[in-house]
Amino acid sequence: LYGKRYSKLKLTLKLVGVVVLLLTLSYRPVTTMRLSPLDPSSYANAHELIIRHVDLDWTVNFDKSTISGTATLQFKLLKQDLTEIFLDVSDINVSSVEAKSSAGEVPLDWDIGGTIENIGSKLTIYLPTKTSGDLTVVISYETSPKASALQWLTPEQTFGKKHPYLFSQCQAIHARSILPCQDTPAVKFTYNATLRHPKEVTGLMSAIKVDSEPGVSTFRQKTPIPSYLLAIVVGALVSKPIGPISAVWAEQEQIEEAAEEFSQTADFIAKAEEICGPYVWERYDLLVMPPSFPFGGMENPCLTFVTPTLLAGDKSLATVVAHEIAHSWTGNLVTNRNFEHFWLNEGFTVFVEGKIVGRLSGNASRDFHALHGLSELSDCIKTQLADTPELTKLVVDLSECGPDDAFSTVPYIKGSTFLRYLEDLLGGPDKFEPFFRAYLNRFKFQSVMTDDFKQMLYEWFREDPKNEVLLERINWDRWLYGEGMPPVIPSYDRTMLEACLAHASLWAENDLDTIRASPLLNQTLVSVQQIEFLAQLLEKKTIVDLTAEKVALLGETYGFTTTKNAELRFRFVRLYIRARLMGKMDEILAFANSNFRMKFVRPVYKELAGWPQARPIAIDNYNRVKDQMMTVCAYTVAKDLGISDIA
Fold it and tell me: What is each CA distance from 243 to 303, 326, 462, in whole angstroms?
């Protein structure tokens, strides 16, 4: 991750001595490192000063694929007599740095060094005298056309085909490619922004729009956010109301479909408030993204980004919206201090998401939701993380890799399973939910570590002496630092799951004649059960007579060949790969190219890479489409294909 190895380094040092020594100081080789005391992936000296507010003045240039302008950073100093500021940057062209005061602006010296591949660089700002108190710094700069947080689409890549499109994805550590900042979730700041863009398109951000005129929009985010929640989108967008504080945004061609698909949004928000407390962000809008968006959703405050793969036509995938709404508390309001503790964001959010599902559809649905998550976790551990078992821990060590490399289902499902275990152990929802709300209230607007949660859990439940024996049963080391599946699986209601298991066994263990005669084929499975059925089938070590004929019958029986549901299509094309159906390669690649959501494309490419005859085809396809992917997707898929050094 951290750079290229230099096999001739010793010889070069002998030849050029001090020159090469200086160069190696600015480009770091692969090593074990923690870049700062608070965050292994950030250079920021956030233990000495923190950004409290940012004012952005940005101009979007589609011709150059750049954003240019200024970032005015208001710092609170935590240490007296400070001489340097360290900020994170990545491929940013800085033109000037000035200290701002009532007397005017004073130029400051600065330099950029310490470049680490896929991490970024350190911007060092030198303060002219030992500085105390508060400080405002104005940085003028321009982003690179290859900024990792930005995706620039041509008109031809949009639905409308008339206007270009820009969107961002800053999580986990890509905000540093669109502004110099303390790119760590340990720091939270408010922001205002003036956004200049072509008059014929609309600009939106992760904030409340306070004013707009053709070509200029202004925004205000008065609730402190970490840098990864900074977001921008510019495109030919329209909106439609879907609730008292909500609208959905999309291109005109998708707006009606999106409004219908996400019509439950207000219900999700109401249930989330019952669980977590008042919603503080004023608006909750949704934006349907282009197919190149790499995630299912991104919880940008006031404007959640969602993948178009959620548009299933029957609202069966809308629980992703419940997940993103839950992030309004778990992640956005209370945030992991660094991404080694990512489970505090995602595990907590899946836990709340499950509760929302339970309140709307019943506890059997909540438990089925959890069991399906465990299936996805098992698949992830066996495939994506097979070679990196250390990344199956709930709390990971990011000293030797970046957050993008560690990203997986583990913090989501293993984390939420741990919380469900704790809830069941400590008295059920009636006992646990008051604690959960109190935890969110105590740490709102803050960034926390796992020990903060653990300490409050003990404080809360030790008020009743009868809980002491229960607390002693929690094996924190196994849960937090043990590899593999969760050490304890809660006693979930398996009613909905059993039908899925029966169908999976039928198709895995029998020939076609037996399958055709089975009364199980008369049993209806709802969409979420069909997804789990296919997931369980893929988990089988052996599938009897996995031929083209059997796969075709499977598709015809359940409608998998014609469904709009991306979760079903994803698993069905993986059966094509499992069966080594080279005749279906066009369909496999068509699905892989239809969207670049990493949840879908990574397993497909990884499994194609394990099929010797298909690997060259997959690599050729990847090289054709990689420029349409966001950087985080292209980088990780290249690793899955085993071509990370040449991609």
Answer: 14, 17, 41
Report the chain's terminal Cα–Cα distance, integer Å. 14
d(CA 552, CA 299): 38
Q: What is the CATH number of the domain that holds 562?
A: 1.25.40.320
* Residue 539, CB-side half-sphere exposure with 13 Å CA sphere: 20
DSSP string, 537-599: HHH-S--TT--HHHHHHHHHHHTTTT---HHHHHHHHHHHHHTT-GGGHHHHHHHHHH---HH
Q: What are phi and psi of 115, to 5 degrees?
A: -65, 130
For residue 353, with 0-12 CB atoms within 10 Å meaning exposed, 13-18 middle and 19 or more buried, which class applies?
buried
Which letter does DSSP use for residue 329 in this model? T
Tokens 């031929």 locate to 547
d(CA 303, CA 118): 27
Instruction: Looking at the structure, tell me whether residues 106 and 209 fall in a common domain.
Output: yes
**Residue 159 carries which DSSP code?**
S
For residues 364 and 379, give the distance between their C-alpha atoms in angstroms, rounded to a whole number. 23
Same domain, 573 and 460: no
Residue 377's contacts (CB-CB under 8 Å, 6 or more residues apart) are 409, 410, 412, 413, 414, 485
Pairing relation of β-strands 446-448 and 334-336?
parallel
State both tokens at 537.
């089938």
Specify whether 71 is located in the same domain as 194: yes
Strand intervals (E) in 334-395: 334-336
Asked whether 275 and 433 are in contact (CB, 8 A), the reply is: yes
Residues 473 and 542 in one domain: no
Assess contact for 126 and 84: CB atoms under 8 A.
yes
In this structure, the chain runs to a length of 647
Report the pLDDT value the prediction gives residue 320, as an integer from 0 to 100.
93
Query: What's the CA gap between 202 and 597, in Å, rounded?
Result: 24
The encoded tokens of residue 264 equal 């439950």
* CATH code for the domain of 138: 2.60.40.1730
Containing H/E element for 108?
none
Residue 511 lies in a domain: yes
Residue 131 to residues 95, 103, 137, 257: CA-CA distances in angstroms? 23, 16, 13, 56
Domain that holds residue 440: 334-481
CA–CA separation, 521 and 319 (whole Å): 27
Residues 436 and 506 in one domain: no
**Measuring CA to CA, how many Å separate 106 from each of 3, 80, 102, 129?**
36, 20, 11, 12
**Angle 379-341-114 (CA atoms, 0-180°, nearest 5)?**
105
* pLDDT value, residue 26: 38
Q: Which two tokens stand for residue 390?
A: 């250390």
Which of 426, 456, 481 is the endpoint of a domain? Answer: 481
Q: What sign does the dihedral 514-520-522-525 (CA atoms) show? A: negative
Residues 6+ apart with CB under 8 A from 201: 163, 164, 234, 235, 236, 237
Residue 557, domain member (yes or no): yes
Give Cα 98 to chain centroid, integer Å: 34
Domain-ending residue, one of 481, 513, 535: 481
Successive 10-residue mean pLDDT values, the chain, 647 residues: 32 36 37 84 98 99 99 95 96 97 88 94 91 90 97 92 96 98 99 98 98 97 99 98 98 97 97 98 97 93 97 92 98 98 99 98 96 95 94 96 94 99 98 99 99 98 96 98 98 97 98 97 95 96 97 97 96 98 98 95 96 98 94 93 69
List, in sequence order, the alpha helices (H) in 205-294. Answer: 255-261, 265-276
Catalytic residue list: 324, 412
- How far apart CA 68 and CA 142 sit, in angstroms, is 4
Q: Structurally, how many domains does the chain consist of?
A: 3
